[in-house]
Amino acid sequence: MEFDKTKNFDQEAEILKVLGHPVRLKIVAGLCTKECNVKHIWECLGLPQATVSQHLALLKNKGIIEGKRDGVEVHYTVVHPLAKKLIEILC
């Protein structure tokens, strides 16, 4: 086996770091199957709304998820292909 010292894994490492938290992993896994809003996520996970919002903000900031506004609600979906692939492998 050869090691490629020219390959940069910075983006992959960052995605793995963000998904390394169990709550964020659950959120991304859920969003891979269905687009939904914050209320639905925190109700399903049984977590406080503020906690879920913090995790969603980080996932959005890192480009893993995207939110689309629908009136007063924001519906989230996974947009990063590597995150989707990792969830497929894990699930």
Automatic annotation (TrEMBL):
Entry keyword Electron transport: no
PROSITE patterns: HTH_ARSR_2 (PS50987)
Transmembrane stretches, start-end: none
Domain HTH arsR-type, residue spans: 4-91
Alphabetical UniProt keywords: DNA-binding, Transcription, Transcription regulation
Keyword Aminoacyl-tRNA synthetase: no
Coiled-coil region: none
One Gene Ontology molecular-function label: DNA binding
Pfam families recorded: HTH_5
InterPro entries: ArsR-like_HTH, HTH_ArsR_DNA-bd_dom, Metal_resp_trans_reg, WH-like_DNA-bd_sf, WH_DNA-bd_sf
Name the UniProt record assigns to this protein: Transcriptional regulator, ArsR family
Originating organism: Geotalea uraniireducens (strain Rf4) (Geobacter uraniireducens)
